[in-house]
Amino acid sequence: MPLWKLHGNGRTIEAGAVVRPDERLSWSATVAIGLQHVVAMFGATFLVPTLTGFPVSTTLLFSGLGTLIFLLITKNQLPSYLGSSFAFIAPITAAVAAGGTGSALAGVVAVGVLLAVVGLVVQFAGLRWVDALMPPVVAGAIVALIGFNLAPTAWSNFQLDPVTATITLVAIILFAVLFRGFLGRISIFLGVAVGFIWAAFTGSFDVPNALRGGKTPAELIAEAPWVGLPHFQLPDFVEPGTWSTIAMFLPVVLVLIAENVGHVRGVATMTEDPSINKHTGRALIADGVATTIAGGFGGSGTTTYGENIGVMAATRVYSTAVYWVAGLFAILLAFSPKVGEVFNSIPAGVLGGATTALYGLIGIIGIKIWVDSRVDFSRPVNQYTAAVSLVIGIAGFSMQLGDFAFGGIVLGTVAALLIYHLGNLIARARKTGADDPKPLEPVGPLGGDPA
What we know:
- The protein has a domain at 24-140 and 161-348.
- Helix content is 66%, strand content 4%.
- It has 19 helices and six strands.
- The strands form three sheets. The chain has a two-stranded parallel sheet. A two-stranded antiparallel sheet has the order 3-4.
- β5 and β6 (404-406) form a beta hairpin.
- It starts with a strand and ends in a 21-residue tail after the last helix.
């Protein structure tokens, strides 16, 4: 595993140059940029456990630990931060309702193991089979339906406090369009902070929490110690409903594959180093291992973060050294119960405003895959692949087969795969316009400054 060599004088970056993964700036600059990566990932990473009911500190711990594992498995040559994946929100929420937190953690573990297996196959067999199974029209549909399937959850929180939710949503949008660079890229985090402050000044912190001993959020924050151990919990593979809920998690594997492949290709493009693509298999293995460990002890699943790609693009620093700093700092924050209690106290209205934007952005990432890949929607097979799967996901279709319950994400994913592949077989046989599969294009970061 290579050590970092100093880039130039360690303080400046020449015009057109980048700090490569095996380079670093001065340690003071490296630490500062590493902390910036923590801030960039924080807004989205803490929202996943907040929305799913998982412990924030535990998820943050395995986010930081997962980042370090990722760096080790990729031989310290692929810069990435592993934050909480939003693709897990819907299946975790459904699994907790059906079989409890233990069943949800079993689903997270199952996704991690399967993703690691896929990574091993990619490492030895290459990426072509992934491109064939999940071309852009299918990948985009799956990512989009996961985001849009969550829309009812956003509305349920929004309507509990419409004023606070609206203020939060407006603040997020204003920060995104008013500011350039880093502030624009953390607009969600800043918008949540605005909504949090508004809610605090309008009495939300004076409302007792019946589930927390009748204490107010302010009292719970004040009583929480500054230092303490995160809460750990083991997955439950014995619960009768666990194996039926695991099926809801399987489409998440496809999303994580798309995100990891897009991340690797994005970094290779930005650093102008095609050799980075050879680490794709290792990236999938690393994310799989990190997700498995997180699910095994009470944390949420992880994925490579577009927010941090935005920071790299803005700073032109791709040094893996800054990610060691970010990972270690996230681990330190995880051992502060007071920090976790602050996030647990976020009012429902704030969550409603933030998730209205976030869930929509997940859907837009899927549409961006279509745009970047120039998907030809004049072909019927592409039209119906996208149309049917999205309606299934948005409407929340469900199906019960014996003890197995399948929700909109599972059914929409199956529909996208079957319509595309079976439709193409028929279209080629009948010469009615089959789609010509294309390689999966990089999924770049949303937001940021225009080129």
